[in-house]
Amino acid sequence: MENKPYYEQEYHEPKSDVPEPTFWQVVGLLLTAPFKWNARSTRKGFWLAYLDTIIITVILAGCSGLSFASDSTIEYSENTWQVFLESTATTKFVQVIIALLMIWVLLGLLGFTVRRLHDSNHTGWWYWIICVPFGWLVLLYFLVLPTLEEPVRWGGYLFTENE
Hints:
Blueprint: H1 23-32, H2 43-69, H3 80-86, H4 89-119, H5 135-144
């Protein structure tokens, strides 16, 4: 190192041991590991999972609308339940499959939320603070906290287990 003052020295990025998940790793974990609670998820991984959930929800909503639109036996009604009851068996089957997929994706996001809380060194039970008025603000604060680059009680990152 030269004898220059610190403000004249070349800048170097700090070294970090936090892994960077890829988009497809996050999609894979969103769909295959909704119930793996004892792990961590990076901030980037959590927000990519949130974005993936929005994209998958829009795609599933489009498929739901297409299945109703392609059913020629349905007449327009403001009562959604009546529309479902008047649809064909194929449309009902498609709607049930779409509902099950949505539940699975939302459980995947719940798993990412718990793992993100673990990454900021908070227990996953903090998720239930959303039941309190304005508790979602506290949860949002915990979710945007940076990753602790020290060991926490909940193990490592799921996407690095296969490497």
